[in-house]
Amino acid sequence: MDLTGEDPKKLHAAIANVMRDAPEALKGSLPSSKELAAGAKAAKEDSDVKASTFFQSMLEIGYLIASVDGFAESERHALAELLSQIVGWAVSIDDLELYFNDLSDACDMLGRRERLRRAAADFEDGIHRGEAIGFAALVAIADGKIAEPEANALKELGSFLEMSEDEVNNAVNAVIGRLKAELGREARS
User: Fold this and answer.
1) Largest CA-CA distance found in the chain, in angstroms, rounded
2) Closest CA to 117 of 35, 165, 75, 57
């Protein structure tokens, strides 16, 4: 999947809109921004362990998938800014960048595959598993492209989530299709 021809600001705006305005048709393929924002708030306040774990696990898998092919500091900042916007600024860009640095250190210690496996274990039901794949795909394409290493990492995540390759592809295609429709809508505006 290659959207590198898109203006990065428009791409990020479209991703934020898809997350914010996720239609019912994407249920099971993408978490709602409200659910993520509630999790972000719970993580900040050290309350509601389930919501906090959901949010942190979504962030972790998104980061792990998007960074599999390398992550420049500018990409990390852009991702933090996008995710902060998606959750209605419930978490600051600085806090997200710090979290991503911690994740990077944890990957160095435990390995990316092990971190991905551990984060995947937090998604116990089919709906959240599909949402994890869709969210990771949106985060991965935030730089304009889902490169081969990212696509392979999405498949690996799917295997940890006990999803077939077809189920992974369906979740990714649903979200990317919605993103393309959003980009087309923005181009017509």
Assistant:
1) 47
2) 57
For 36, 63, 145, 159, 177, the CA distances from 97, given in Å and listed in that order, are 17, 11, 21, 28, 29
| 25-37 residues labelled b (16+ CB within 10 A) or e (exposed) | ebebbbbebebbb
Give the whole-angstrom CA distance, residue 31 versus residue 99. Answer: 20
Question: pLDDT tens across 56-105, in order?
Answer: 999 999 989 988 888 777 778 888 888 888 888 888 999 998 988 888 88
Amino acid present at 118: R
Please give the DSSP secondary-structure letter assigned to residue 92. Answer: -
Determine contact, residues 142/15, Cβ cutoff 8 Å.
Answer: yes
Secondary-structure class of domain 8-188 per CATH: mainly alpha
Is the dihedral angle over the CA atoms 53, 103, 97, 58 positive or is it negative?
Answer: negative
C-alpha 154/C-alpha 146 separation (Å) is 10
Contact status, residue 93 vs residue 84, Cβ threshold 8 Å: yes
Helix (H, G, I), strand (E, B) or coil at 52: helix
